Amino acid sequence: MNFTYTEEQLMFAETARTLLTDTCTPAHLREMMARGEARDDTRWNAIVETGLTLVLLPEAAGGLDLAEVDFAPIAEAAGYAGLPEPLVESAGVAAPLLAAIAPDHDVLTDPSATIAIQHPLNPFVADADTATVLILRHENETHVVAASAVSLTREESIDPFRRLFRVDWSPTAETRVEADQAGWDLALDRAALFAAAQGLGLAQRAIDLAVDYAKERTQFGKPIGSYQAVKHHLASAQVAVEFARPVVQAAAAAIGRQDDHARARVSHAKLVALEAADQAGRSSIQVHGAMGYSWEVDVHFFLKRAMALTYAWGDPAFHRARVAERLFRHPAGPDQLFAHEAA
User: Fold this and answer.
1) Which of 84, 100, 120, 312 has most Cβ atoms within 10 angstroms of its Cβ?
2) Among the four given CATH numbers 1.20.120.350, 1.10.3720.10, 1.10.540.10, 2.60.40.1880, the one describing domain 7-180
3) Domain 182-342 is in which class?
């Protein structure tokens, strides 16, 4: 399987990364926290104008009709920037699900609108306060509900920019839409995959912050980055990122199969990418020394996002179970079968 990115995909990813890192710096995040803001309208408008919200929407809904492998680098760029706006879960998960179950819904005609989504694996709904509509579950039914028809209660999150809410609402026949389990299964896989992609970005940003600090901070008359202990610490974190990257890319390439093998790839990707992000974040804090444990050090934005995503869209135990399901019940995947037949 060739799951390397094409030149066009890399160019699109670089456009996204440049836009997000230029407009979303740690200084911007601190300003938003001080003002109590959930979204920067100027940045969001630039994201919309670039077409990032349309990647996974079908052409019939005004989208670009691209695939998960095209959106994964965008999710990685969002992780690298620590983006507070819900680009990934709205455009990467909720919008394509809505386009599949309610293709004529008015919200799909507005690329600047965001959609929040509830899933049984997540006790609370992320970014419900800025959503235009919410996709909600009631027993085995799916409902698309306007934001004005729900009551929200804010819940605490370790990540100050992952805003979580308990949603109180009343299902009606008018809000109910038909949605099969396969659609929800794909939404879960997309969410887990893009959480993994964000993990790659979060990990790399934590390492880059540590490297920059290690070049500037001197001890005993020379930069601390010249010491072997610091080099090895960051090299180990970088190795974890590089080992996780092809796992994420392979999962993005295979997700469309929607079988046990594809689901195991997605789960594997989420496990290793967010483990790499956690390792990188903690290593970066240690490189920063005692001050690294204070909130004033920017790496906390990225470590806390990684910690939050680790338990969103299935915790590690859930994803290890999916990998075990594939290993013990279906040990030979399509690629192994092909190799066996060719031999």
Assistant:
1) 84
2) 1.10.540.10
3) mainly alpha
